[in-house]
Write a structure and sequence with these properties.
Distance between the termini: 57 Å
Number of domains: 1
Order of helices and strands: HEEH
Strand content: 5-15%
Shape: rod-shaped
Radius of gyration: 30 Å
Helix content: over 70%
Number of strands: 2
Largest sheet: 2 strands, antiparallel
Structural class: mainly alpha
């Protein structure tokens, strides 16, 4: 496996990981919204610290809502951080791939220049 093939594979893997990270963000948003709606639909409104309920009535739905809210918020933060890390890694792979391609293109142009040196054309006419 050449270095260029390795860089292609790593860039593709990083792109895949970035897509999964963004799907984790979407999953976190769904959990977060579900948790907030669960807490809002309970009989008594809870006390809120920004978006997290901290004092609710002892109802089974309150624990579920709190769990969904905290896990959704955690998934959103983790997904954003993982997506940015994968995007940054892919940027490094793409930069190195451009450098490898520019070196290969330069060598190819030098080879073409060497082989296309003008020579005296041969004539098919008999001499004499």
């Amino acid at each position: 496996m050449s270095f260029r093939e390795y860089l292609h594979e790593k860039a593709e893997e990083s792109r895949h990981n970035e897509t999964i990270a963004y799907l984790i963000v979407i999953m976190g948003a769904v959990f977060f919204i579900g948790g907030v709606l669960e807490n809002l639909l309970l009989g008594t409104p809870p006390d809120w610290f920004i978006v997290i309920p901290y004092h609710t009535t002892p109802v089974a739905g309150a624990v579920l809502g709190l769990t969904l809210t905290i896990s959704g918020f955690s998934f959103i933060i983790f997904g954003i951080i993982a997506g940015l890390a994968c995007s940054r890694a892919r940027g490094w792979y793409m930069h190195e791939l451009r450098n490898a391609n520019s070196l290969a293109d330069g060598k190819m142009h030098e080879k073409v220049k060497r082989t296309t040196i003008r020579r005296k054309p041969k004539s098919n006419l008999p001499s004499g």
